[in-house]
Amino acid sequence: MVDFGSGSPAVFARIVYIDSANAYLLGTRDFSYAFAIDPAGGHLKHLYWGAAISPDDVITLAADPADWAMNTPDTIDMRKPGALWRGFESVPRAFTEEIIAQGGFRFDEPTIAVETADGRAGLILRFVKHVIHDHADHRQLTVALRDEFAGIGVELHYVVHDASSVLTRWIEITNDGGRPVHVTRAASASWALPASRPYSVRNFFGHVQGEFQIEDVPLVHGLRRLGSRTGTSGHRGTPWIAVHEGATEQAGEVWSFSLAYSGSWQISTQLSDDGGAHVVMGVSDEEMRCILAPGARLSTPRSLGAYSDIGFDKTTDIWHTHVREIITPRAHRPLPVMYNSWFALQFALDRVSLIEQAGRAAKIGAELFVIDDGWFIGRKDDLHGLGRWRPDPDIFPEGMDGFRRTLGDLGMQLGLWVEPEMCTPDSDVFREHPEWIHGSPGRFWQTHRHQFVLNLGLAEVRDWVVEQISRVVDESGCAYIVWDMNRPLPLGEAVRTTETTHADGLTQVLNVLRSKHPTVVWQACSGGGGRADLGILSSMEFTWVSDNTDAHDRANMIAGASHVLPMATLAHWVTDPQELNPVSDRLQQTASLATRFHASMNGVLGISADLRQWSDDQMAEAASLVTQYKGFRHLIADGRFHRLSLSCPGVAFAYVAPDRSEAVVIVIANPFGYGESNPRLRLRGLDPEERYVLGDLPAQSGRLLMQRGFVLDGTQTASWLLTLARSR
Ligand code: DGJ
């Protein structure tokens, strides 16, 4: 087996170069990934990705002639059996390569494609050198390839972290020739899967108010491309897919992928006739396309891959660990209980209403009071006001800082909503800098929700946004910012300036703001869940899944999002039933108050409701639910998450303490169909040898609770909140 060393047990990521085989072995105790340099042509052969293997195994794999020896990228050896016929297919097969450079006989979906001004489109990339860096908590391998003729260098980067079983990959392209080059495709990585069939794919689909719905489909022959072209990761789903062979939560191999990027993206899957499959993922072609000047360098976002040999449950744990340890390590604990003004007051903000809501929010236990859209000058509706980030003196005669002090007297901190990438046509910023807007006059210079998008690809726009939002934070003393984005970017005009996309520009802006205001907590939002992805979570602690707050819809969306996004990164609100709700006439929201709370407790609990309308009984019930949440929120934040199976339609989630001493289980179900009323639930993740106290039940072993399960008692409810503690 691989020698993982005898150092600290936490240190187990390794990258090894095996000289005798010209091969690389990367991995942790949980997985191995291997590839080799083809001695004949200097191309990179993919060898393996799966459960951990030894360097000897890699030597065996590197010597296997398979497809490569028969059909190298340079020649088709007609003496090999079947060569003539195989030569009509992509050569080499895409699933045997580390990078698929368009050109020659590579007919499969490429990783990279460039064109020169004289119309040549094709690259032949050959090995130049490699470097392995040993950092304190991760190892990095960089392999440099080059096309001598085109003057194009490509670096493939691989990172393995000690604290995570995700493999991180990306590429960088350099034009060191003398002429500009059109880059028409620059994906972050191609990922090869072992030849096998039938494969299935799990991915998300959806729309505004219908985000994160799960789709399971067979991987069919040919090419399937998922993605977003809106300039955000979008409502159709976060850039994540899983490829598997009929895996369940607890069994089967799963290869899953995500892109840490918050702009337009694409993930293509391709199944070949002989069962080989590969996945190509990166920024969408429209957003990546650019002219690379001589001497220029183009970098791609991180493409992440995870291998699980124990179904979707382990897959989820790998992603949650990676996000918690590597992507968003600035854990904000405890998770705040927040109130948000949007579903109560929308744009009708006035001081008296806000103070009334604040007083009642404090009574039920809110710790943070977020004033959503409408607090700044001119914002009485969505026609005006964006771009002028000054508090409306009619609403806040004592200034925002004065209002913050009023909240402080109630024991709450202030949060503010902003949408800094936007301006309305009546704003000074638009009048003074029309050249800052995406699109150009007469060419896709369109408003959407009555607003333009400021081009964060431009350094001066980034500086302006930093200045505006810094001032808002400094003058208000707010502790929390909700950063919204309520429209797509136009296609048709160049969406990237030199090497920076709008999404890259956003990351730069947020990094500066975070370093200027290190105590502020940031939450993403984009017309609901348009920016719930691993790109935005590298700059913000929390994100927003959807504006759909219906308890049952929300619970299903959480089940989808939970595959890759940890619960501690997701914010949810308890909202009012439809008749009291000014925001959406499409939400059903028929669930009881308790069920609405239970659904929203699967993350950062928020309330966005007109609390002035709540009866004393409702206020008391809400206060008791908030107190309950505060008692177990450490488990929501840092417990091991499991999706449980339930004997009726619905979802059930368990959050188990790392030492398995306690757990909380939340079930949102429709138990009344077909005359059923008492669904059965089996737990997961407990210590089988320990005994647990669950509600009024006599203590029983973790084994029984997991193997046999138990009946959820009650005919009147659609949700259950259960806490378990190890009995002493
Ligand atoms: C869209 C968001 O998803 C809502 O929650 C709210 O903040 C509105 N924008 C405000 O305009």
Give a short overview:
With 728 residues, the chain is α+β, with helices and mostly antiparallel strands. 21% of the residues lie in helices and 30% in strands.
What do you see in this structure?
The chain is an alpha+beta fold. The chain folds into 3 domains: 314 residues, Beta-galactosidase, Chain A, domain 5, CATH 2.70.98.60; 301 residues, TIM Barrel; 83 residues, Sandwich (Immunoglobulin-like). 21% of the residues lie in helices and 30% in strands. The chain has 15 helices and 41 strands. The strands form 9 sheets. Strands 6, 7, 8, 9, 12, 13, 15, 16, 20 and 21 form a 10-stranded antiparallel sheet that branches. Strands 30-27-24-23-22-33-32-31 form an 8-stranded parallel sheet. A hairpin with a 2-residue loop joins strand 38 and strand 39. Helix 10 runs parallel beside helix 11 and helix 12 packs parallel to helix 13. The site of (2R,3S,4R,5S)-2-(hydroxymethyl)piperidine-3,4,5-triol (DGJ) has 10 residues, from loops.
